[in-house]
Amino acid sequence: MKKLLFITFILSISVLSFGQRKHAEVAPNGYITMPDYQYIWGTASDTLENADTLNFVWRVKGKNVFDMTIQLYNDHISGTAGGKLKTYYSINGVNYTLKDSITVSSLTADALDSEVITVDNFLYPYLKVNYIQSGTAKTIPKVFFYVKEN
Predict the structure, then answer these.
(1) Does residue 63 belong to any structural domain of this protein?
(2) Where on the phi/psi map is residue 7: left (φ > 0), alpha (ψ -120 to 50), or beta?
(3) Residues 69, 133, 113, 144, CA torsion sign
(4) Residue 2 lies in a domain
(5) Is the pLDDT of residue 78 over 80?
(6) Does residue 17 belong to any structural domain of this protein?
(7) 1 pLDDT exceeds 70?
(8) Stretch 120-125: mean pLDDT, rounded?
(9) How far apart, in whole angstroms, are the C-alpha atoms of residue 52 and residue 82?
């Protein structure tokens, strides 16, 4: 009986200590820790051809709550492009929920989209940006990202 109680005690301690482990951080592409102005993509290595996709994940750290403004610029190379820029948020960096999107259509020249994505009081540790291009085109997208402390 003593052995059974001892084994039960050890098992309960091990289960409790395992449950307290901190999850490892998902490897992001960049960090947000304070007010900032930055852009992602926009180089020759980011060139999209026809139906193609780019993803970028930010890890939002610090004790501040942020407001964000996101806008899409497309550097047109050839063809006619369309696409959708989507933003997602996540508590764990694995399961994402759609926040907002910008749609581009019939793009035949360089263009800064007039639509913006505005994110107020961002409270999640992960923000993901996903751009899916459609059409028969070659473009280089660039996403401008403005963060201010709320």
Answers:
(1) yes
(2) alpha
(3) positive
(4) no
(5) yes
(6) no
(7) no
(8) 94
(9) 11
Count of domains in the chain?
1
User: 37-57 pLDDT, tens per residue?
Assistant: 999 999 999 999 988 999 999
CA-nearest of 29, 129, 127 to 85 is 129
Distance CA 30, CA 144 (A): 14
Give the CATH number of the domain where residue 100 resides: 2.60.120.510
Concatenate the DSSP letters of all residues of 36-58 into one string: EEEEEE-SGGG-EESSEEEEEEE
pTM value is 0.81
What residue type is assigned to position 87 of the chain?
T
Question: Measuring CA to CA, which residue among 145, 125, 127 is closest to residue 62?
Answer: 125
How far apart (Å, rounded) are the C-alpha atoms in residues 93 and 57? 8
Separation CA 100–CA 46 (nearest Å): 22
Q: What is the span of the domain harbouring residue 66?
A: 32-149
Tracing tokens 């709320």 back to the chain, one arrives at: 150
> Closest by alpha carbon to 81, among 130, 132, 138?
138
One-letter amino acid identity for 97?
Answer: T
Q: From residue 60, give the alpha-carbon distance in Å to each of 5, 97, 127, 137, 147.
A: 45, 16, 7, 33, 11
- Domain-located, residue 19: no
